[in-house]
Amino acid sequence: MSARGGTTRRTEIGLSILLFIVFVGGWEAAVRVFSVPAIVVPAPSAVMRALVAGLASGELVTHFWVTFAEVILGFVAGAGCGFASGVMVGLFPLLERTVYPYVVAFQTLPKVAIAPIIVIWFGYGMTSKVAITATIAFFPVLANTIVGLRAVPREQVELMVAFTASRWQVFMMARLPQALPYVFVGLDIAIVLSVIGAIVGEFVGAQAGLGYLILQRNFHMDMAGVFAILIILSLMGIGLHLLVNAIQRRVVFWIDSAHDKVMGA
Questions:
Q1: What dihedral do alpha carbons 121, 122, 128, 132 form, nearest 10°?
Q2: What is the pLDDT of residues 176-206, one digit of tens each?
């Protein structure tokens, strides 16, 4: 990265931090000036106290790991099935005409509506939450994989076939490298949606997890505690998003190289 690019990046980070400070400060001031009831909107200071108390007691940490495990397991299952299905549909057009419409039809079903059914099938334990999360993570990876596999230039495929390349060689050397940026876009979307999927599953029926804890604190009108959990969920989503981006930079390294060359020019 050039010196100019580094300076720009530091400026962007500084502006982001400044925006956060202004937002939190304005929120705190508005709550105090207008005497907003804590049950409606708690002050950031109250949220921070609830967050510290929950972490100190270990309650938030325990439920965090339950939700985190559900998110990761559901994401891996859904993304893995989505990628494998996307490869099959992308390579065999017959599957797109016969199977893909049913996949789209299933995707249009509200997950909140089918979550109770999944809980009935798999019980109130972690399995049902993983299944719900997997159904949400599945489609973004599937759709982006299909688009990526078909984004390879036709001339490149025809040239490889002319040189007697097998279907497997065409896939590994042309289609898959072209599809990887699209796949990671799908993974990035799926990992964030997986957090939502786990919480939806816990809302429907759970014995542990941050979603279960949100319901408990809502019942006790502890809005500061609810906001503290929402902060943890936001940080979880941001962290997983950054992790996927870091892996993408390692795997699809040629995109960053090309971008750096353009910026350097």
A1: -30
A2: 888 999 999 999 999 999 999 999 999 988 8
How many CB atoms lie under 10 A from the CB of residue 141? Answer: 29
Spell out the residues 6+ positions from residue 245 whose beta carbon is closer than 8 angstroms to its own.
188
Residue type, 144: N
CA distance 134 to 50: 31
Rounded to whole angstroms, the Cα distance separating 170 from 175 reads 6
Per DSSP, the three-state class of 40 is coil
d(CA 137, CA 73): 11
Of the candidates 112, 127, 106, 245, the one whose C-alpha atom is nearest the C-alpha of residue 189 is 245
Distance CA 188, CA 182 (A): 10
Q: Tokens 């720009």 belong to which residue?
A: 8
Can you say whether the dihedral through the CA atoms of 126, 132, 134, 137 is positive or negative?
A: negative
Where helices occur in the chain by DSSP H, the ranges are 3-33, 44-57, 59-91, 93-98, 100-107, 111-122, 126-149, 154-162, 167-170, 176-204, 210-219, 223-251, 253-264
Structure tokens at 139: 């489609």
pTM metric for this prediction: 0.87
19-78 pLDDT, tens digit each: 989 999 999 999 999 888 888 889 999 999 999 999 999 999 999 999 999 999 999 999
Helix axes 176-204, 223-251, angle to 10 degrees: 160
Looking at residue 31, what DSSP letter applies?
H
